[in-house]
């Protein structure tokens, strides 16, 4: 059985009208009363997102159907309906939760969590925000995906239980490439083009534990770098960090950067658990981002630890990688200042009981920002990442 053609499931324009001109400045003003409309093109209906005020338009051939009106005022709770055929449900879909809260005119902020399913501080913070954010307290639009890669979130896994994909290595996606690529394509081609700010909330997951940080990439463009740092400082984690990431190209953060959106990621604890202190930081941080964007009134709130410490992981020389499979015994707890050339820990090899453990050394001086949490490691896994002050 074949699923219905994507174009056949498209809805019709609501016919609502644009909202009044905005009172709050925005680089990409959005009238949230403009409907999602559909144009006949190339033998298939294509959904066309319009912003009549700004003259913006994004065309997508995505088969993903949002069951909320991205241009309506008020608070909507619904799903993105992503095709996923099964043996017993040829027309099956997976429902990815989405919440849109909008009022008046102003910037659009996209907040996402559950890109990896075993990272919980972001998921719980966005659930809290979804329940508590009232339309009348904001000017602009907030789009929340609290459990973006829903199959992985439901399983409590980093990778997809459907196909083993890492969702954060699926961007910019492929509309007909299967669940993860199709959803990534929708986020990239439909949601990102209507955003001014985007933050994708991560933690260390099952494998890593990380000092709570707002994280941006090291960018070539000075103005975008400055805007990224300003938003990260506003989030207000203990650390604002610029990162040289392993395989950053296919990430959501890179996709947002490629579209000229001020974008952040984060690392907010880890170990496959919900860290209460990191959760407090995250809940405050997401509201701070909305204040920074001008969607919420007021100034960002500063944590009890004070302004964020600006740090960087500038290259892979700040990583310590395991050279072999084994059990990792770290020499220091997370958040310790360490010296290059000193022992980072011991790698115990069960295959060779007569040999001493392999001693690994730090290759950089700085803060032990990220540490291996799970005991078992494979060759090539990072066991420590050092950050230094900017
Ligand atoms: Zn993650």
């Amino acid at each position: 059985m074949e699923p219905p053609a994507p174009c056949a499931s498209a809805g019709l324009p609501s016919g609502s009208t644009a909202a009044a001109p905005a009172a709050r400045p925005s680089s990409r003003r959005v009238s949230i009363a403009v409907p999602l409309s559909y144009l006949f093109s190339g033998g298939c209906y294509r959904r066309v997102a319009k912003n009549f005020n700004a003259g913006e338009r994004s065309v997508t051939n995505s088969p993903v159907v949002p069951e909320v009106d991205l241009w309506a005022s008020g608070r909507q709770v619904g799903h993105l309906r992503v095709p996923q055929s099964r043996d017993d449900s040829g027309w099956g879909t997976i429902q990815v939760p989405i919440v849109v809260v909008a009022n008046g005119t102003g910037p659009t902020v996209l907040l996402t969590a559950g890109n990896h399913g075993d990272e919980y501080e972001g998921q719980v913070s966005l659930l809290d925000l979804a329940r508590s954010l009232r339309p009348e307290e904001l000017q602009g639009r907030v789009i929340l995906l609290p459990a973006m890669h829903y199959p992985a979130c439901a399983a409590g896994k980093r990778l997809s239980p459907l196909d083993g994909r890492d969702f954060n290595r699926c961007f910019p996606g492929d509309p007909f490439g299967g669940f993860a690529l199709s959803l990534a394509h929708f986020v990239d081609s439909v949601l990102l083009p209507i955003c001014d700010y985007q933050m994708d909330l991560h933690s260390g997951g099952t494998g890593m534990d990380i000092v709570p940080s707002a994280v941006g990439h090291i960018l070539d463009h000075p103005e975008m770098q400055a805007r990224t740092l300003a938003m990260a400082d506003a989030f207000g984690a203990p650390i604002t960090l610029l990162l040289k990431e392993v395989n950053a190209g296919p990430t959501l953060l890179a996709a947002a950067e490629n579209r000229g959106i001020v974008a952040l990621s984060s690392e907010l604890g880890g170990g496959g658990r919900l860290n209460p202190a990191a959760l407090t930081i995250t809940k405050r941080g997401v509201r701070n981002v909305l204040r920074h964007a001008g969607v919420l009134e007021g100034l960002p709130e500063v944590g009890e630890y004070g302004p964020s410490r600006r740090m960087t992981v500038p290259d892979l020389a700040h990583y310590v990688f395991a050279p072999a499979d084994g059990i990792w015994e770290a020499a220091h707890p997370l958040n310790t200042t360490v010296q290059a050339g000193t022992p980072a820990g011991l790698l115990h090899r069960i295959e060779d009981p007569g040999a001493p453990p392999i001693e690994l050394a730090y290759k950089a001086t700085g803060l032990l920002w990220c540490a291996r949490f799970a005991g078992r490691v494979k060759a090539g896994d990072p066991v420590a990442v050092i950050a230094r002050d900017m």
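DSSP finds six helices and 23 strands in the chain. The domain at 73-312 is CATH 3.40.630.10 (Aminopeptidase).
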